Amino acid sequence: MKKTVVFLVIAAMMLCFAGTAFAATFSDTGDLSKDAQASIAKLNSLEVINGYPDGTFKPANTITRAEFAKIAIILGGLGQSADVLKDSTTKFSDVAANQWYTGYINLAASQGYVKGFPDGTFRPNAKISYAQVVTVLLRVLGYNDNLPGAWPVDYIAKAGALDITEKVSLNANAEAPRSDVAIMADATLDATVVKWNNDTESFDEQKDSDDNEISLLDKNFSTAVNEDYIVTDTKYDDGVWSIKVTATDDEDEALDEKWIDLSQDCVISDGSLPTGLDNAMVDILYNDDDEEVLYLEITSTTATVDGEDWEYNDTKDQFTIDDTKYDQASYFDGYVYGEKDATDYNSDAVYRAFISDDDEVYLVSKRNADTPAIVDEYDADANQLIVKEEGNYGAYADIEDIDFGSDSVLIEKGGKFIEPKDLAENDVIYVSEDSYGYDYYIEVAGGITQEGTLDGFEAGDPAQIEISGEWYDVADISLLSTDGGDEFDGQLNDSDLSDSYDATLKYVLNKSNQVCIAISSADGSEGSTVYGVVTEVTDTNASGKITKIKVMKKDGTEASYAVDTSDVEVYYAVGATTNHGGTYAGKELDEDDFIKFSVNEDNEIDSLTILAYDNGGTGDFTDPSAEGSDNVIDDYSDSDSADYIGTITGGDDDNNKITFKKAGGSAVSYKVNDNTIIFNAAPASDDDGAEIVSLSDLLDWAADTTVGTKYAYVQYDGSTVDYIFIHSDVSNSTDVSYAAILKSYTKSGDKWVKIDAKGTAASYEVNGSQAPEAGSIYDYSITGNKFKAKTNGEIFDPQDTVSATTYDKVTAIDKSELTITLDDGTNVMLDADTVIYDYSDWYKDGSDPEYCKSISSISKNDKIWYALDNDGNADLIVIVNNIK
């Protein structure tokens, strides 16, 4: 079946070395609805409504009555006749001869399309209203004042019945903007022309010799649309783009399996280039006389989704894609699982569905997961493209061998075909051989511009990377630059990313939404002075000089720093004369000492001040200046901390104050606030490293009279404390009972977890050497902003804990009594503290477990696993439907 519609032509076509350059019609219509853009383009193609010389359409502008007279005449197929009447006198007193609009108004009046006002004027420069637009459009179709009812209700009602006003918000007396005029005129072109029948006193629809209704487009424009074809191939040859199409409708096979040329003025509805037509379903405006396509309306859409969110029901011939169901089209081509011999979707892969406007899937493809190349420069003298890294996509090995002087090369960038000189440094390119009629096709995917903060990394197959809270798979071939994009000599792994955590990462996703290329913004410089606790002396040289340390900083993270020994000479093992007591005999710097330092541009410590020596958890701190090393006093500073070392004797959490008494001094009250940083060197009984203590926990500890002497380093400025350094077992655990481990990963070499704690997701560094297992539920606490599994640790492991003998089936639910009955007759009581997680989707496709707020989330016939508390009530319930 053929349907007549109007199609657009582009105002100006730009030629480049690759041939015709397709482009969008107007620069200011991109924010309009798809319907409005299409209508504007179609009306422009027929020269019914034109744009402005500056390339704009000005969709919000209004239209004058004279301008609309011209529109009506062109829609009526009388455009050329208007010139004949431009010199004629008119019946309207305000329409002079020889004006640009004179012929259009005269002709429109003679055809009955327009009428004047009772005073004999036409008012050519007055703005036309919605009611007047609708009236003229229907008169062009053949309707007249014989419509029942008073004006303008008669015309507006009929226009509504014909769907002419369906896509606009009509206000009869308001001035009609150009965009809405285009939409209504476009709809009028698809309406059937009529003629008043005096005998029957009705409007007869006009039909052709085959008894088909004649639309306004059929009558006045010699074009027709071939509907619902799929583009199977595209090529460029001898200055002409051509497409090969396959019919999906047995009644419309005129172009089936044919190569058809695109006209030089052909425009694609979404503004894409011919290279973007692969597998698209299109309606084709084909000029039989010239045997070329004037316009392509893309009617299909795509859905690109991870494999874990796909299902196919071969009984119903139905796809479920990201929870939306689609029928399989009768003309479906290819493989339902995206590739030959596949029997299911790979949860780690990405698939694309091509969907018709009937919401049927007609093609499924598995997305390419290779890594593109990175441009260095184009050498015009050598006709050669130089790349920084070639990646592994397509013809990657041939890139630097392409001779742009003799090989035919098509380059697409930013919706245009460009010349090689327009390629820029760090453009990301996909290179294919023998494509679109060219020796090589280069698709520029853009620059390395997506941006976020590097939060975490998890090794695996595939590895995963967390950027600004979002997890992505990492491509098999990954490229990392740590020098601003000059060289990509690293990979996306925890080792190469070690200095980039919490820094800005610019990155590229490949066609499977995997991170494949990244540039780290880490510049190796901390900038200002850094305070911290030494958590490890990592390296020393043969003479005992410290060359690398690990420090916990004020944000609770640990970082490793090399020591610039030309500026700082500090020893880990020296003679007895430099002994500063405690367990650190013979060491100038050791674990749990409190320091401040700065680094150079290479991230090496070039200035170091020891603020307080920790005495191995024995209680008091040592003033470094009292134990200074005579032979290295010029190479690092032993701070005179006598005013800051002493004991905390009280805390006031109502007023945010502590009482501090320095050695040999009197007790003084100092203010603490959210800007006060509290460092806690690990107690001797705790091997889990230093921690940052919250203000509230510090105040509780300071006020606790059951705690013995509270030794501390308290650095204040006036009456306000800036830094506190302690070495004590400050209890700052927040018991939130159970949490599901969503992900277990590494960050800067440390173990981290992302958890779901009663529906709230958060990420923490792990306190301890054992990494929690992803997917399991743990009894845990947060200590020093670190995740710590309690003694009983893992409570539920979805793979090992549950079996046919350990789960039960729910047979009844009493929500009022918070009771569920199981298939063995057991009644399980819930209370306000019962934690419920649903693992049904975890067992189904690996999705994250879902926290459930109440007993309402449990249904009859659910399979559950549960654990009881000391009172015999359910402490934890896990729904385990879909367990195999």
Automatic annotation (TrEMBL):
User: Would you say which domain of life the source belongs to?
Assistant: Bacteria
The region annotated as signal peptide is: 1-23
Q: Which UniProt keywords apply?
A: Repeat, Signal
Pfam annotation, one family: SLH
In what residue span(s) does the SLH domain sit?
Answer: 23-86, 88-151
Protein name as it appears in the record: SLH domain-containing protein
Protein species of origin: Formimonas warabiya
Q: What lineage does UniProt assign to this protein's organism?
A: Bacteria, Bacillati, Bacillota, Clostridia, Eubacteriales
